Amino acid sequence: MARIGYARVSTIDQDFDGQLARLKTEGCAIIRSEKVSGGSRDGRTELATVMEFLRPGDELVVTRLDRLGRDTRDVLNLIHEAEQRGASVTVLDPHVSTRGELGHVVITVLGMVATMERRFIRARQREGIERAKAAGVYKGGKRKLDYERVKAMRDGGLGPTEIAQSLKCSRIHIYRILQKV
C-alpha cells in the first residue's frame, strides 16, 4: 500500500510548497504536482499519471478537496475511478477519507462547495472585466501560446499531437488555435 500525494495550484505565480510539505509530513512516498486550473481535467497530466498508477490498497492524498478539482461531478468521478482501482482518497483539510461510509457524504458536500466557489470566482471575474471594459482599460487575456509559432510548426509538417507535446499544452488547445490561423 502506497500513500500517493497530489498537489496543484492554478497559476504560475502561485507555489505549492505548503502542500508538498504537508503531503511529505503525512507520509506520502510519491508526490506529483502541477500548475494548472482545477476547473476540468484538461491538461492535468500529473493527475492522469497518479490515477493510472493507483493500485489496490493505495491511498491518494490531497491537502484540500479543491486541489483535486473544482467541479463536483469531476471530483466524484475521480473518487469513483480510484475506488474502481481498489484505492481510497483522503483529504487532509478537513480530514476525511473514502474508507468510511460517512466520508463519501462529506466529500460530496465539499465538492458541491468547491463548485459553488468556482461559480462565485467566475461571477466576480466577469464583473471585473465588465468594469474594466466600461473604463476602457480591458485588453483581453494574454495569449499563452504564440499562434504564429503554432502555425509555423504545422506548416513545417508537425501534427497537432506533436505540436502539443512540444509546447507542453493540450491537443485541444492546438486544434482551437489552428482553426483561428
Q: Uncertain regions: pLDDT < 50 for 5+ in a row?
A: none
Reading off the top of the CATH hierarchy, the class of the largest domain is best stated as Alpha Beta
CATH architecture of the largest domain: 3-Layer(aba) Sandwich
Q: Say what the CATH topology of the largest domain is.
A: Rossmann fold
Q: Helical amount among residues, as a percent range?
A: 40-55%
Active site: 10
GO molecular function, one term: DNA strand exchange activity
Pfam families: Resolvase
Domain Resolvase/invertase-type recombinase catalytic: 2-136
What brief labels describe this structure?
5 strands, globular, 8 helices, alpha/beta, five-stranded mixed β-sheet, 181 residues, 53% helix, 2 domains, 13% strand, Rossmann fold
Topology:
Layout: E1 3-9, H1 17-25, E2 30-35, H2 45-53, E3 59-62, H3 65-68, H4 72-84, E4 88-91, E5 96-97, H5 101-134, H6 147-155, H7 160-167, H8 171-180
Parallel strand pairs: 1-2, 1-3, 3-4
Antiparallel strand pairs: 4-5
Helix pairs in contact: 4-5, 7-8
GO biological process, one term: DNA integration
Pfam families: Resolvase (PF00239)
Protein name: Recombinase family protein
